[in-house]
Specification:
The chain has 426 residues and is of the alpha+beta class. Helix content is 23%, strand content 32%. A hairpin with a 3-residue loop joins strand 3 and strand 4.
């Protein structure tokens, strides 16, 4: 199995939100009949979605633990996209705002600190900074994790030297001055995005406003091979029961008599499938009643990823791939972030210009399938019979209901990516 996942977040900063050309960054999509803001089956297709409709609720403060912060941000995204397949990296969003926080002062800084739990002076704690250094470039035959943050500024915007040095040193970020009125600038930025996402996102930006001051792009790319690949010959069709109790027939991967970490709680069943290095693992968090909440327990996810003893079991997991994108501004406002969207001087450590964030687009795509032939060989009919046979003693984990999924770095105990599968599509 090879899993490819890419996260891209684009932040556009304007001189004044109320003046000038209001063109925003637009995502280009290939011609398709797929409605906006729906999961599609083409892994290279990214759709443009409008602002999600969400009910106004009191602002929420993220908790102190990094994974709990990420879980809260993930929950806010789920709240705005109920019933959809969601793929996201709250870590990518968190890191984008950490880069911005290096240049924030006044009320804007206080708001970021309250929302994301940033630390006075250092912004991020030591453990998180060490994780960033690891994720900036990890490349081997088994697992690839790569994070990149690039800041592109309009040609007339002068960034402060201390800020450029800070983001380069702490976040390994790059800063480049470009002419936003030149159509070639879009191609330059898109080439950088495509390079950092292994060409999964080729058209991240379609158009830039000449009045924009800067564009901040954060990408996270992950590719992993199963420690024990699924046998393609054992893939079979089976029913998946959706949250509304309707059923769809999808392709399931199967593995028999193998050792995995799994456990059950009152609400969820957990399964951890490791990649070859076993430093990184894919965790399924399946709702027993088939109905996912907008919250999950990151401690349970970390526990099953690295602590629970392995047991022999048979597992049946659907193949899936999908694309997701959303406008993050309404979601971040729900988390209590407001001042950064209003033109002010709080960005004074970045530039002397008044600034505000005008557009934040979060894109993600994922593909989960099987690779290789090392597994026990048994026919489709046998597998179907085994799924239904309650008297078989070997435990079975059948992911045939809606579930969360998480990609976890077990060594640093960080949840890199999270998502939901309400209906598998491949």
């Amino acid at each position: 199995m090879i899993l490819d996942q890419i996260i891209s977040i684009t932040i556009v900063m304007e001189k004044d939100k109320q003046q000038g050309n209001q063109d925003q960054v637009k995502l280009e999509k290939k011609p398709s009949s797929t409605p906006s803001k729906t999961v599609v089956n083409n892994i290279e297709e990214v759709t443009k979605s409008g602002p999600p409709k969400i009910e106004k609720k009191p602002s929420k403060e993220l908790p102190s633990d990094l994974n709990e912060k990420l879980a809260a941000a993930f929950g806010a995204i789920l709240e705005a996209n109920k019933g959809m397949n969601v793929i996201t990296s709250a870590l990518s969003i968190y890191m984008s705002f950490a880069v911005l926080a290096e240049g924030m002062t006044g009320e804007g800084w206080k708001e970021l600190q309250k929302t994301f739990g940033f630390v006075d002076g250092s912004i991020l704690d030591k453990k998180t900074l060490e994780s960033i250094e690891h994720f900036v470039s990890k490349d081997n035959d088994d697992v690839l994790i790569h994070m990149d943050t690039s800041l592109f500024t309009n040609k007339n915007v002068k960034l402060k030297k201390d800020y450029i040095e800070a983001i380069k040193k702490k976040y390994f970020s790059s800063a480049e001055s470009l002419d936003f009125s030149d159509p070639k600038t879009v191609s330059i930025i898109n080439e950088k995005i495509a390079y950092n996402t292994n060409n999964l996102v080729k058209y991240g930006i379609q158009k830039l406003s000449p009045t924009s001051l800067a564009v901040l792009v954060n990408t996270i790319y992950f590719k992993g091979v199963w420690a024990d690949p699924f046998n393609q010959e054992n893939t079979f069709e089976h029913e998946f029961k959706k949250a509304d109790d309707s059923k769809v027939t999808v392709e399931f991967m199967a593995k028999k008599n193998s050792y995995f970490r799994f456990k059950h709680t009152d609400r969820y069943s957990y399964l951890s499938i490791p990649y070859q290095s076993e430093e990184t693992t894919f965790v399924i968090e399946m709702a027993k009643d088939g109905k996912l909440d907008t919250t999950h327990n990151p401690k349970e996810v970390i526990d099953v990823a690295k602590n629970v003893d392995k047991q022999m079991c048979d597992i049946f997991v659907p193949k899936f791939k999908s694309v997701f994108n959303c406008d993050m501004i309404p979601i971040l406002k729900e988390l209590g972030l407001n001042r950064v969207f209003i033109s002010n001087k709080d960005f004074s450590k970045i530039t002397d210009h008044n600034m505000c964030i005008n557009n934040i687009v979060h894109n993600a795509c994922i593909q989960v399938d099987e690779e290789g032939t090392e597994a026990c060989a048994f026919t489709m009919e046998v597998m179907e019979g085994q799924i239904a046979a309650a008297e078989v003693e070997i435990p079975k984990f059948i992911a045939d209901r809606p579930f969360f999924f998480h990609i976890v770095d077990c060594v640093r105990e960080v949840i890199l990516f999270s998502g939901t599968i309400e209906e598998p599509k491949f």
